[in-house]
UniProtKB/TrEMBL annotation:
Name of the protein this chain belongs to: Bifunctional diguanylate cyclase/phosphodiesterase
Span of the entire protein shown here: 339 to 592 of 601
Domain EAL: 1-254
Top-level taxon: Bacteria
Length: 254
């Protein structure tokens, strides 16, 4: 059985689950949001990483259905956490190019928010630079329509794509995510320090939030804090957690 057919069946059998990784304020350590990361709870192979199926899902087009399933689950989880009285925070969802380019993508987001009774301010979409670089006028329309719902827009893996920075002027972006390759060993890697510093400065001057990804050590966090990078995400704070562990993680910190 091909991986593609296996994934179709997984959608029918509801085998995709979300884990959530905390995003914290670097200065105070307070929770600021959570990134939703999909996993496949495979009946024989156990928990399968998205690295092993997202590329095939993108090639086959199945990423559209998987991405819809991820958005539904993320919003259902926000609803559930709200109902359980957890402190409110935003959930970030990774969006693939094919998914973003679906006709009426913004309308789809609007419908999902309404269905789950979740306000747009509790959702952030993580887009890659490659999504933004094609069909600029269409992209701009979609971004504006999404923004009008109150949803936040972040650029994932910032600095790794082939972008021209001028798109930051035109597109209603809220946040840059410093790719983890620039964060790794930043305390003893001058080039990474220079790049991260440049992204923080760019964020400051354009009034964008900046979050460092893949922060693993206290020394990496200290350097980023020294640069006045505002937020961080990474194993130093927590790995991605299943929802119940996430709630426990949050309870233990407050
Ligand atoms: O979660 P990590 O744990 O292994 O994720 C690996 C890769 O898969 C990352 O590049 C991440 O952005 C991507 N990824 C994780 N969840 C999703 C998702 O729901 N949709 C898309 N398109 N990519 C995802
Ligand atoms: O492409 P994107 O940035 O969405 O992917 C996030 C990926 O990074 C996921 O695979 C997630 O599990 C992983 N990740 C999150 N925090 C860390 C970290 O501190 N170190 C490493 N090596 N990976 C991390
Ligand atoms: Mn991401
Ligand atoms: Na990233």
């Amino acid at each position: 059985i091909s991986l593609e057919n296996d994934m179709r069946r997984a959608l029918e059998r509801d085998e995709f689950v979300l884990h959530f990784q905390p995003q914290v304020d670097l200065a105070t350590g307070q929770l600021r949001g959570a990134e939703a990361l999909v996993r496949w709870r495979h009946p024989e192979r156990g928990l399968v990483s998205p690295m092993h199926f997202i590329p095939v899902a993108e090639e086959s087009g199945l990423i559209v259905q998987i991405g819809e399933c991820v958005l539904r689950k993320a919003l259902a989880q926000v609803r559930e956490w709200h109902d359980q009285g957890l402190p409110l925070f935003r959930v970030s969802v990774n969006i693939s190019a094919l998914q973003f380019r679906q006709a009426n993508f913004a309308r789809f987001i609007e419908t999902l928010l309404a269905e789950h009774g979740v306000s747009g301010e509790f959702l952030e979409l993580e887009l890659t630079e490659s999504i933004l670089m094609r069909d600029v006028e269409d992209v701009l329309d979609t971004l504006n329509a999404i923004k009008s719902l109150g949803v936040r827009l972040a650029i994932d893996d910032f600095g790794t794509g082939f972008s021209c920075l001028s798109y930051l002027r035109r597109f209603p972006i809220d946040c840059l995510k410093i790719d983890q390759s620039f964060v790794r060993n930043i305390e003893r890697t001058p080039i990474n320090q220079s790049i991260a510093q440049a992204i923080v400065a760019l964020g400051e001057s354009l009034a964008l939030g900046v979050i460092a990804e893949g922060v693993e050590t206290l020394s990496e966090a200290a350097v980023l804090k020294g640069m006045r990078c505002s937020q961080a995400q990474g194993y130093l704070y927590s790995t991605p957690l299943e929802p119940r562990s996430f709630a426990r993680w949050l309870a233990n910190r407050n």
